[in-house]
Amino acid sequence: NNGWGFIEGDDGDDYFFNVENARPGQNLNLGDFVKFDYYQTQKGPSAKNILKINPFKNKISNLSHDNTPK
Predict the structure, then answer these.
(1) Measuring CA to CA, how many Å separate 27 from each of 2, 60, 63?
(2) What pLDDT, in 10s, does the model give residues 38-50?
(3) What is the pTM of this model?
(4) How far apart are CA 70 and CA 62, in angstroms?
């Protein structure tokens, strides 16, 4: 999967993610509720190890699928 987006955290912060940082087998969609591991980059807070969960956690608030060939 290609793409990137932002997860709106419970703390109100937005966490950047690349779809490749989702756990294997996860197909992420706008509005999905997820849990994730936080890490800091030079550009700001980011998410990895992303897993879809029940609707009482953090949800994806922005998602772009970039289908440009590498």
Answers:
(1) 11, 12, 12
(2) 999 999 999 999 9
(3) 0.72
(4) 22
